[in-house]
């Protein structure tokens, strides 16, 4: 039996979706479900894309969006599948609530350690790492992805360099939270002057652009969706 869907009731009408670092079998299913929900799926990251679904933070598409496309939402892969399930059940869908729930956090799957950080600031960083999708480790291991440091000294720093771990200033951490995405680490190198840290790592949205973006995604409750089968 085929499902006849009313285009006017599709919850993702007007949405353009692109993927990065999503396994091919999952991506195929995701593209099909996105289309049924009214979205347009594209392989290429064009200017029309509104949402990037990312499996990892270190891809070229992700890095480009983090730096240049603050208007684009970076999503967890579960977003499309959860909306699809809710839609099939005929439940009301609050688009913005679903979007907020599935935003990919800036430290998704990162293992972060710190060194030479005052105890009070260290405690705050540890708490926020978890809040924003990462995992804090007090011990530096070869599995650590990032070492936050204030200067190039100490055993953690030495082994971080030896093991090829990304060693960055605390500004990387705070600006990534502000941006809502993991910023490229080379903009926050320990050998940079303080006034140069983060320059060019991302370009915040201007106030007039924020107003336009808000108007595009006015919160709305969508009615129950019923599928007619024949």
TrEMBL record:
Region (Disordered): 208-230
One record GO biological process: DNA replication initiation
Keyword Iron-sulfur: no
Domain BRCT: 7-82, 102-190
PROSITE patterns: BRCT
Keywords, alphabetical: Repeat
Keyword Transmembrane helix: no
InterPro entries (alphabetical): BRCT_dom (IPR001357), BRCT_dom_sf (IPR036420)
Compositional bias of kind Basic residues: 218-230
Full protein name: BRCT domain-containing protein
Organism, scientific name: Pneumocystis jirovecii (Human pneumocystis pneumonia agent)
């Amino acid at each position: 039996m085929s499902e006849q869907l009313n285009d006017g009731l599709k919850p993702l009408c007007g949405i353009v979706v692109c993927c990065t670092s999503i396994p091919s079998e999952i991506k195929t299913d995701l593209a099909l479900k996105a289309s049924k929900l009214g979205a347009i799926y594209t392989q290429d990251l064009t200017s029309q894309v509104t949402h990037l679904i990312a499996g990892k933070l270190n891809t070229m598409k992700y890095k480009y969006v983090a730096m240049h496309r603050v208007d684009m939402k970076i999503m967890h892969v579960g977003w499309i599948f959860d909306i699809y399930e809710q839609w099939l059940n005929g439940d009301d869908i609050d688009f913005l609530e679903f979007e907020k729930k599935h935003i990919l956090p800036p430290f998704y799957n990162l293992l972060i350690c710190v060194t030479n950080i005052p105890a009070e600031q260290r405690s705050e960083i540890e708490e926020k790492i978890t809040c924003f999708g990462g995992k804090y480790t007090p011990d530096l291991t070869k599995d650590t992805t990032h070492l936050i440091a204030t200067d190039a000294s100490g055993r953690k720093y030495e082994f971080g360099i030896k093991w090829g771990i990304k060693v960055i200033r605390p500004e990387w951490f705070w600006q990534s939270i502000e941006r809502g995405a993991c910023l490229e680490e080379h903009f926050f190198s320990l050998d940079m002057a303080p006034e140069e840290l983060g320059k060019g790592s991302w370009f915040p949205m201007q106030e007039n652009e924020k107003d336009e973006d808000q108007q595009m995604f006015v919160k709305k409750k969508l009615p129950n969706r019923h599928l007619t089968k024949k």
